[in-house]
Amino acid sequence: MLERCLDHIDTMTSELLDLQKNLVSIPALGPLNGGHGEKQKADWLKGRLESMGLGPVRELNAPDQSVPCGYRPNLATVLPGEDNSRTLWIISHIDIVPPGDVSLWDTDPYVLERDGDTLMGRGVEDNQQGMVSSLLLAKALKDLAITPPMNLGLLLVADEETGSRFGLEYVVREHADLFGKDDLFLVPDSGSADGSAVEVAEKSQCWIRAEVNGKQCHASSPEQGRNSLVAAADLILRSRALYDIFDKEDPLFEPPMSTFEPTKKEANVENVNTLPGRDVFYFDCRVLPDYDLDEVLAELRRMADAVEKERGVRIVLEVTQREQAASPTPQDSDIVVRIMKAVQKIYQVQPRPVGIGGGTVAAFLRRAGHHAVVWAKIEHTAHQPNETSSIQNTLGDAKVMAAALLGTD
Ligand SMILES: [Zn+2]
């Protein structure tokens, strides 16, 4: 059954091209990215799913008054399997990011271009590669009249690029009935160029704004002021001790340790001969799931207190973004085992579970207690000008999905 399906997928290049051509031609930008949402592209997808015999398609519209139609569309459809109680869900996102500076593109970002194995256009990789792979698998099963051992669910979501509030987060919260407790989840939206990276965990993420208030004065008489830049530099250097305090390592992650990096620095005074009285800078922290972010914040606060005392400044620490990591998906869970076996069979590479620095939609699923894997064989040209994807990878990924669903034994 699997071999028949894999052979059939090899014949589906023209279907793949037709899907990509249509999907590229319909921009789906969220309002925060200056667009009108995903309705037009979702309507086209719904029609296509239905014409492929993959209906009924459930519409899970998230109300959003900032787009003309008043909602952000999410689509779900299930191809029934022999065991109706379990579903392998493949989740892809409909929205794209803007093309950016169009002069950096060699071609029109909204017209599909092909050069041999390479497709070019906004969205061809992110996330249409994964979406098209899942559609090809569903169509192959239909064409061959194969009933898979468990259900195959396709979930096409909105709003991935600007936070998922109207996308997967909404679906998991408002339509929890869609998912069974033994369901399996694959998010084909990140991975590695050889297909070996199987993402099962992520670090907690925390962004902190540090505002250092001293006293501005003429730089020739520093004793009359409090130099906020010196105090900021002091806090930055003290914060390096966070690496020693929270020093656990986990080889699953790359890099294996938590990271605490000062990043953005806002402008202070405009002229060289003024001693700054106010400095604002930011930390980007990626913390292993073992640690509570509150512990990190408390430690940084203690360091800020010491700087305040020593340098006579006041430091306000404000958390601007915070995401405590969800529990990792167990490496022996069914979805991880199936994807690892399938990757090995189709791509002949040694798959490895990995953790990443943070921030995929899998977290919404993991927090709800589901086992989710983020995987694709992908070149990582997403969000760049001249975004590309590989036809062979798209077909190959459809085969990995097929092997994960139908079983490799
Ligand atoms: Zn994406």
Description:
With 409 residues, the chain is of the alpha+beta class. The chain folds into 2 domains: 282 residues, Aminopeptidase (3-Layer(aba) Sandwich), CATH 3.40.630.10; 120 residues, Alpha-Beta Plaits (2-Layer Sandwich), CATH 3.30.70. The protein contains 11 helices and 19 strands. The strands form 6 sheets. The protein has a 6-stranded mixed beta sheet. Strands 13-15-11-16 form a 4-stranded antiparallel beta sheet. Strand 2 and strand 3 form a beta hairpin. Helix 6 runs antiparallel to helix 8. The longest helix has 19 residues. It is elongated, with a radius of gyration of 24 Å. The site of zinc ion (ZN) has 6 residues, from loops.
